[in-house]
Amino acid sequence: MGFDPWDAAFVADPYPAYRELREQGRALWWEATGQWLVPHHGDVSGLLRDRRLGRTYLHRFTHEEFGRAAPPAEHEPFHLLNGNGLLDLEDPAHARVRRLVAKAFTPRTVERLGPAVDRMAGELAGRLLADGGGDLLTVVAEPLPVAVIGELLGVPEPDRALLRPWSADICGMFELRPDEETARRAVRASVEFSAYLRALITERRTRPGEDLVSALIAAHDEEGRLSEQEMISTCVLLLNAGHEATVNTTVNGWWALFRHPEQLAALRAQPGGPDPEKLSTAVDELMRYDTPLQMFERWVLEDVRIGDTLVPRGAEVALLFGSANRDPARFADPDVLDLTRTDNPHLSFGAGIHYCLGAPLARRELTASFGALLADGVPPLRLVKEPCWNDGYVIRGLKELLVEC
User: Using H for helix, E for strand and C for coil, what is the string for 177-206?
Assistant: First the structure.
């Protein structure tokens, strides 16, 4: 089976195809989307840090200068929202915005949220157990990050149901060759989410709270260097990046544990429940073993050589995170799930200036979620039926995960 992101069998298990790609070379031209596929860990890690590549090229070139067509005018609300977030900004704008956001989104912020994360994870796990099981995706995996991000941003609880649909519609544009209906939904979600956040910012200006939106307003007002659009885009990115990765790590991780019962039993067998440090190590291994974000694209701003291949300015590279995280040149027995693996420089949170700002919060959510379902006295979860995968490849996750206890 070859590399084919639109094939259901490939999406269900892309790892054999990745093995073939790594054997074929370090940079492989893929005609279907006009991209260079990069499958090796060393190359992916290095290119994430290489300033000759960028998430955008508009800080240095016009569309015409770069040999690319401008996106359709009707897609502008999506691109305005996406282009002002940390994920797609490049220096010097990226450094300025990240510094200001980091002043608001501090380790103390994550620490302050810790008890609430534990409480919410426990409540959601309790609902699943009280019902004797259910869909782990909709009962636990999806509600937890939405609740946490809602708490972080200061979104009132009745409004939090809006967040997941907006996130899903916007993230549809990150798949390969999204169709016009996907774009239409993403544009609508971008407009609605932006309007909601603009109103929330207006309210927090008069009634500030202990939330991130209030802290971002302070960063804007004190230094005047964080625009309202950058504030809005930052909040949306925190939802989209944190939410999608956490949801898919949860369900993909449990599916991996069900397929490796000896690993699951060892994790559960620890007296008093899983040790927090061992659980954190296990979560990192689950993120490596079945990566939630399979591909990360970058534009080539200056000619770059990858192995024997010269990739010219104007090209686009597709960095294959899922392949890099299974590269035998970096990981011993990469196709083996080893929850005690400590030498684990997986790339699931990225690297370089675009390393995920929310990684500590995502790890906190994941350890709380897995910990709540693996705690002493909690009956073991059992898989009801083999799950199916969503159609998406770039953001890869299950449609549902039915369990009983």
Answer: CCCHHHHHHHHHHHHHHHHHHHHHHHHHHH
Sign (positive/negative) of CA torsion 357, 164, 209, 196? positive
Whether the Cβ atoms of residue 37 and residue 14 lie closer than 8 Å to each other: no
Residue type, 341: R
The CATH code of the domain at 8-404 is 1.10.630.10
CB 84 within 8 A of CB 197: no
β-partners of residue 403 are 134, 383
Task: Enter the DSSP assignment of 138.
Answer: I
pTM for the model: 0.94
Q: Which of 300, 311, 303, 331 lies closest to 28 in space, CA to CA?
A: 311
> What is the C-alpha end-to-end distance of the chain, expressed in Å?
37
Q: What is the pLDDT of residues 16-49, one digit of tens each?
A: 999 999 999 999 999 999 999 999 999 999 999 9
DSSP secondary structure of 301-336: SS-EEETTEEEPTT-EEEEEHHHHTT-TTTSSSTTS
Structural contact between residues 232 and 159, judged by C-beta atoms closer than 8 angstroms: no
Q: Nearest to residue 110, comparing CAs of 330, 328, 368, 378?
A: 368
Alpha carbons within 13 A on the beta-carbon side of 342: 2
SS3 call for 28:
strand
**188-214 residue pLDDT tens:** 999 999 999 999 999 999 999 888 888
Q: Phi first, then psi: what are they for 361, rounded to 5°? A: -70, -40
* Number of CB atoms found within 10 A of residue 68's CB: 15
